[in-house]
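dumping this here so i dont lose it
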């Protein structure tokens, strides 16, 4: 028993590693899992006590369970059979495609990540970049939403900061699940986004099998009461104006909605606006490239390493200004929440049930609903200092003195308020708001001062128009021309 045994060094290393692995698996990992699970459960309990709408059970279900439920859904199974038959491929190949789609779409919501990590990031980023303001909110209407209703926030899409801003402002009320584009499918961002309940969408996919899987997931989440945030425009506004609504996700939600069921589907219109959007010049480059009159003069868009270099340069300049204490936030970012819109009441008023209509009968009605909802969003888009000043200057290309400009903007504010628009006036001081808007535009060299007159810089008129267009729909027809 006391004799020694000689082993090669590599065998000793393997045995040590196996022993460490066994100890971790049997002793440490279960303890860590128990600790993390306990922290998550405490976070869920705490959050549900203060949220207006508690986290639904569907959102707390394990991801693998949701994947199995989606993969074996009768509608998905039927779609697999049809696809395999039409494409002449083995059923197993079609099943493998569906599994990839399901893993891409289905989130893995983690309450601790959402309310601890996600909220901290959203609050920090929003308040670092902007003067964040909640302009107005129908508190009575929001409080009257039934606790078991599925709530969907419908928002205009101005910037990729929209996700961050709204999540931060509603974190005390609700945990939102976003439909996120493919731009966010990069490591490790996609893992963080998925853990906060977002699901990824291929917005331009024409694959019928993919669309069917996405449709069924959205329907399952809607029926399960998951609060969602949707951009009806489908993408960012390129020229600043509100875009026509797309009905894809809206149609998915309504196709299986039971008007007489116990769970109502309630839409909340949300209007956002910024004194400066981070992507404005990139978005306007798309506009110039698509315009035959300007396409030849546009420099080719930076892509790949060039795009990374350009973005890094933008970040570097701002960090350098911060270090020199010359950096200023990008103005005001304001959000308004409108009155809740009950789908059950709407269908009763219009007298139809989407489940009982053919596609040809249903689509026009869904389009009508989408236009009505988009109009409700438009009503609550806030008018901010930069958009007001840009509107006045573009209406007078010959230039305005400071006194004339302030008088002009005062008139625009009166016109908007008379029309029922939401005008955000910082500090409740119109003169301060106008001076602030002028300062923002001067700092970006979008306007110039010549002989005491403020006037647009000719090469930046498109940029000014981008900000003026954000509120053009609020004016009575023809008022700004």
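and the seq i came up w/
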């Amino acid at each position: 028993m006391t004799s020694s045994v000689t082993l090669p060094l590599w065998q000793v290393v393997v045995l040590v590693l196996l022993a460490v692995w066994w100890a971790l698996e049997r002793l440490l990992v279960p303890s860590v899992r128990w600790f993390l699970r306990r922290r998550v459960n405490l976070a869920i309990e705490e959050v549900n006590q203060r949220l207006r709408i508690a986290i639904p059970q569907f959102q707390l279900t394990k991801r693998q369970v949701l994947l199995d439920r989606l993969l074996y859904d009768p509608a998905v199974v039927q779609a697999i059979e049809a696809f395999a038959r039409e494409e002449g491929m083995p059923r197993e190949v079609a099943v493998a495609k569906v599994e990839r789609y399901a893993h891409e779409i289905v989130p893995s919501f983690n309450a601790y990540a959402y309310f601890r990590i996600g909220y901290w990031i959203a609050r920090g980023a929003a308040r670092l970049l902007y003067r964040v303001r909640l302009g107005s909110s129908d508190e009575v209407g929001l409080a009257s939403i039934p606790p078991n209703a599925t709530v969907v926030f419908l928002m205009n899409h101005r910037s990729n900061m929209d996700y961050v801003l709204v999540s931060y402002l509603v974190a005390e009320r609700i945990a939102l699940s976003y439909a996120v584009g493919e731009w966010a499918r990069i490591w490790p961002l996609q893992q963080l986004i998925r853990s906060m309940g977002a699901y990824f969408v291929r917005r331009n996919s024409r694959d019928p099998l993919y669309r069917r899987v996405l449709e069924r997931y959205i329907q399952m989440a809607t029926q399960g009461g998951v609060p969602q945030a949707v951009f009806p425009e489908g993408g960012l506004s390129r020229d600043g104006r509100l875009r026509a609504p797309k009905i894809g996700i809206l149609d998915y939600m309504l196709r299986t909605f039971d008007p007489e069921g116990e769970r109502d589907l309630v839409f909340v219109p949300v209007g956002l606006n910024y004194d400066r959007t981070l992507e404005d010049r990139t978005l306007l480059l798309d506009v110039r490239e698509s315009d035959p009159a300007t396409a030849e003069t546009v420099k080719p868009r930076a892509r790949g390493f060039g795009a990374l270099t350009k973005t890094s340069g933008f970040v570097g300049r701002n960090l350098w200004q911060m270090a020199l204490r010359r950096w200023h936030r990008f103005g005001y970012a304001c959000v308004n929440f409108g009155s809740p819109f009950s789908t059950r009441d709407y269908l009763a008023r219009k007298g139809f049930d989407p489940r009982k209509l053919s596609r040809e009968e249903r689509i026009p009605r869904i389009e009508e609903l989408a236009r009505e909802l988009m109009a409700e969003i438009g009503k609550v888009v806030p008018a901010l200092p930069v958009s007001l000043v840009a509107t006045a200057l573009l209406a007078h290309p010959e230039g305005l003195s400071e006194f004339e400009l302030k008088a002009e903007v005062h008139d625009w504010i009166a016109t908007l308020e008379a029309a029922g628009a939401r005008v955000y006036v910082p500090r409740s001081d119109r003169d301060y708001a106008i001076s602030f808007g002028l300062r923002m535009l001067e700092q970006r060299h979008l306007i110039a001062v010549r002989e005491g007159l403020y006037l647009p810089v000719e090469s930046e008129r498109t940029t000014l128009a981008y900000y003026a267009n954000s509120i053009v729909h609020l004016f009575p027809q023809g008022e700004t021309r």
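The first strand starts at residue 131 and ends at 137.
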